[in-house]
Known about the structure:
The complex is a heterodimer. Chain A is mostly helical.
Amino acid sequence: MTGPDTHTHDHGHDHDHDHARTFQPDIEDSPFSYYQIMAQALGELLIDKGVFTADELRAQLEWIDSRSPEDGARLIARAWTEPDFKKRLLEDVNAAAESMGMDAGDIPIRAIENTPAVHNVIVCTLCSCYPRGLIGLPPDWYKSREYRSRTVREPRKVLAEFGTEIPDDVEVRVHDSTADLRYLVLPMRPEGTDGMDADALVALVTRDCMIGVSLPRTAGE
Amino acid sequence: MDEGAEVVNAQFGIGDTVRVRRAYPPGHVRAPYFTRGKTGVVDAIAGAYRNPEELAYGRYEGKALPLYRVLFRQSDLWPDYDGPDGDTTIVDVYENWLEAAEGGQG
């Protein structure tokens, strides 16, 4: 084939199924839940009452969807290479983010530092509190009842399921962010990365290591 | 707005032993069930915030509540915890849920 224009219906696989009957379901084909309907109704009501406009709501959703772990990773990588910046990050994450031109949002975020003696992991047992402004929307598992209940109950088993084995002489400290603050784990800088600058280190900082269910990539990965 | 306001007249200080009230009120409650009646130590004071249990019902009155980061030993939260003794959980708890406790284990 040389391009999409040459594509014909006869494209090489067996036609023992009927294309006309194999639709991918539309979003509307699964039933809306009670809370989806309530959220939609609430949004429409707030727009009707002039609390915000439809465009403001859309813009906020667009902002939320545009967040990614990249911002958080840049903060961590810089903290690994600049002790002064690390100090500022531990004092006030939102201000440190702003100083790098990032918008971490209005909710106060704290950085929790891993050390050789303490490994930290974040959960919200009540809902899905998460530092969205810096690492994007939470993965589905973060919101699951399994993760929310088991991370406080048997954190080492949960970490092991993520492939993270923490030695018994290292304290596992769970942070249940159920209130007005959000938490971001500042992992330890991996060994063997002394020659890497902050730009290179960013690639080692994964979303999951900032939640604390994993460790950063190593230099060779 | 008084979110994150500076804390004045905090009832507890860092290092104080506190117990989460053993209470089970209906409605929107932000003290996790597994902490009720459990004893921990104030690890940090995180600021003062309006009571979310009132905000949930559109009530904006009332002064901001100090919010504490309370450190619990896992073995105090879960009597059958089978991990190392040093493992801990920190939970953010508003002052209205805490009461003074004797040092020691809950």
